[in-house]
């Protein structure tokens, strides 16, 4: 559980960039902001007026007033008149943007055409012309505007192909955008920038096969182009070729050790590939760079990643050092305190854990910290205090009331509280949440622990009535019927349904193995149980696998399975009872 939580938390931080549109991951030139110094390839018309006339001023003021009042159509009308009267490119730009905001296709087309006419070397105007042509489904016009965009960009020393990607990326018809980009590349097939842009657009719409071919061509045309090779590694990654991606990115990081953005991306990829030790090393290198430059907030984010990775790698001393360094960070103080509490828990230091959890007073871990305090209190015999905290928690976080109720019932069960007290709490919880699947499922499991198979059947059937594909309910019902009632064929049916829904679940594979064993199919049982045991080192699965091996005459193998489980789970009740039944001691 801790491992899953740590990976989840780390990925929340580390994969934020990976969740963005693909092209945003790639290094881009400085964005073009309208007019750029330089004449460009097209003659610029002379202004219609050197000074503002009273009529132009009136139209502009009336348009701006209407815009502020939310009267878009009226504003557009005034601005359109002002643009025509003045011939000013800035007014034409404003007019075009209002038309697009109003989704006025005809107005947008006319306004953008006027803007381009008055400022033909403005790259933003040329991009808008492409986008509007796509918006009104005039693809041949879009093709012409793309050619003009590249021509103007070339004259200004800009990458027109990247600008084309930005314009095409806004279109609703991704396939048509890709076709237009391919047409542009066909004209400029000898230019690596065109293939790079095509790869970027194809990757953005998840056409990774085309992206892979396009970026490969760019790299052939310009082998030393670093940006293209970085993009190639990302296309490998998002296209499912992770080993190739990591191999290439690793080489790029070695070639440019000072490229912090690249190293951070490489570290993210390593985390997602669960190569945590290597990721840890990359983040350590990043921290050296950030510390040298005294980038406080950014350095703190790297420390946070290192703290979580160190905890994942069981390097507790290092993890503590990183989290303690974050206690003065406004952004990460609460998270650091929470994980210091988790480390204290792993060290069996409940007072220390509680102290750290109590200092988590904000953020996403505040509820989690409060619940863990309740667990630690209950575990040290202070059940009443734990329950008081949980009751207060339901008042503070009513949206999480069900989760808190489920935890409280579990704590009562662990403390071997009076059964009537547990039933009473379930009744209270279900009174407020009568059809909640989590509460019904929890009560069902508590019922079977008390020998009340009737409660389990009733509650799980209620869950399945609302959600017939609740795999855990199907599994629990099937396993219990097999283990406690002898209704093996019925049990097999439920477990089979569960396995179809979750074919890789260790718990369900264990249940299927157990029911096969109960009906005497030992070979089939061993197949399922071996598979479950490979996926999860769990004392109950090991108990079942050992028993079937023993009954099958494979006693030495059974002892090996049981001993491995006993070394880690010696206090597990099911494992202890299984070993007692077969007279095995370690």
Plain-language structure description:
The chain has 32 helices and no strands. It has 586 residues and is an all-alpha fold. It has a domain at 537-586. Residues 1-37 have low confidence and may be disordered.
Fold blueprint:
Layout: H1 2-14, H2 54-68, H3 72-86, H4 89-101, H5 105-118, H6 123-135, H7 139-156, H8 160-168, H9 174-187, H10 192-204, H11 208-221, H12 226-238, H13 242-255, H14 260-272, H15 276-293, H16 296-312, H17 316-325, H18 333-346, H19 350-358, H20 366-379, H21 383-396, H22 401-414, H23 419-432, H24 437-449, H25 453-466, H26 471-484, H27 488-501, H28 506-518, H29 522-535, H30 539-551, H31 555-569, H32 573-581
Helix pairs in contact: 1-14, 1-16, 2-3, 3-4, 4-5, 5-6, 6-7, 6-8, 7-8, 7-9, 8-10, 9-10, 10-11, 10-12, 11-12, 12-13, 13-14, 14-15, 15-16, 16-17, 17-18, 18-19, 19-20, 20-21, 21-22, 22-23, 22-24, 24-25, 25-26, 26-27, 26-28, 27-28, 28-29, 28-30, 29-30, 30-31, 30-32
Class per helix and strand makeup: mainly alpha
Count of individual helical segments: 32
- Describe the largest sheet: none
Radius of gyration: 33 Å
Unreliable spans: 1-37
Proportion of helical residues: over 70%
Short description:
This protein is an all-alpha fold and 586 residues long. The protein has 32 helices and no strands. 74% of the residues lie in helices and 0% in strands.
Which short descriptors sum up this protein?
586 residues; mainly alpha; 74% helix; disordered N terminus
């Amino acid at each position: 559980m801790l491992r899953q939580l740590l990976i989840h938390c780390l990925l929340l931080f580390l994969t934020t960039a990976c969740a963005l549109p693909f092209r945003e991951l790639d290094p881009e030139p400085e964005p073009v902001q309208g007019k750029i110094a330089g004449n460009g390839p097209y003659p610029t018309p002379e202004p219609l007026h050197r000074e503002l006339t009273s009529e132009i001023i009136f139209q502009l003021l009336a348009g701006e007033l209407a815009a502020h009042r939310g009267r878009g159509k009226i504003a557009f009308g005034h601005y359109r008149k002002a643009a025509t009267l003045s011939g000013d490119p800035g007014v034409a730009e404003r007019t075009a943007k209002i038309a697009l905001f109003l989704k006025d296709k005809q107005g947008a087309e006319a306004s953008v055409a006027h803007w381009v006419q008055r400022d033909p070397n403005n790259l933003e105007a040329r991009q808008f012309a492409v986008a509007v042509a796509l918006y009104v489904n005039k693809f041949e016009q879009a093709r012409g505007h793309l050619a003009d965009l590249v021509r103007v960009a070339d004259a200004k020393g800009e990458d027109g192909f990247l600008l084309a990607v930005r314009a095409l990326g806004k279109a609703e018809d991704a396939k048509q955008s890709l076709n237009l980009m391919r047409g542009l590349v066909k004209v400029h097939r000898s230019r690596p920038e065109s293939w790079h842009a095509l790869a970027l657009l194809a990757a953005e719409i998840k056409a990774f096969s085309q992206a892979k071919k396009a970026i490969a061509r760019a790299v052939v045309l310009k082998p030393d182009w670093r940006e293209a090779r970085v993009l190639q590694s990302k296309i490998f990654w998002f296209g499912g070729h992770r080993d190739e991606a990591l191999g290439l990115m690793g080489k790029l990081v070695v070639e440019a050790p000072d490229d912090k953005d690249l190293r951070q991306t490489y570290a993210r990829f390593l985390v997602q590939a669960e190569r945590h030790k290597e990721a840890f090393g990359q983040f350590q290198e990043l921290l050296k760079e950030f510390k040298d430059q005294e980038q406080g907030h950014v350095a703190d984010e790297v420390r946070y990643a290192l703290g979580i990775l160190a905890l994942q790698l069981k390097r507790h001393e290092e993890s503590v050092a990183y989290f303690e360094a974050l206690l003065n960070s406004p952004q990460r103080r609460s998270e650091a305190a929470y994980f210091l509490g988790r480390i204290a828990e792993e060290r069996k230091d409940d007072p220390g854990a509680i102290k750290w959890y109590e200092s988590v007073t904000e953020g996403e871990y505040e509820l989690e910290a409060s619940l863990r305090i309740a667990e630690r209190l209950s575990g040290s015999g202070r059940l009443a205090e734990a329950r008081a905290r949980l009751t207060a928690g339901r008042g503070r976080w009513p949206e999480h009331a069900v989760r808190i109720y489920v935890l409280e019932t579990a704590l009562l069960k662990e403390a071997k509280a009076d059964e009537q007290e547990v039933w009473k709490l379930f009744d209270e919880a279900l009174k407020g949440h009568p059809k909640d699947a989590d509460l019904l499922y929890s009560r069902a499991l508590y019922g079977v622990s008390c020998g009340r198979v009737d409660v389990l059947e009733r509650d799980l059937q209620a869950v399945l009535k609302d959600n017939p594909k609740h795999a855990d309910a199907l599994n629990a019902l099937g396993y219990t019927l097999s283990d406690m009632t002898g209704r093996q064929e019925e049990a097999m049916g439920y477990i089979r349904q569960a396995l179809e829904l979750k074919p890789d679940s260790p718990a369900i594979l264990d249940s299927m193995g157990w029911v096969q064993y109960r009906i005497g199919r030992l070979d089939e049982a061993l197949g399922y149980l071996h598979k479950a045991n490979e996926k999860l080192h769990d004392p109950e699965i090991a108990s079942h696998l050992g028993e079937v091996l023993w009954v099958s005459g494979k006693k030495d193998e059974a002892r090996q399975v049981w001993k491995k489980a006993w070394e880690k789970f010696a206090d597990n009740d099911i494992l202890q009872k299984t070993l007692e039944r077969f007279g095995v001691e370690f």
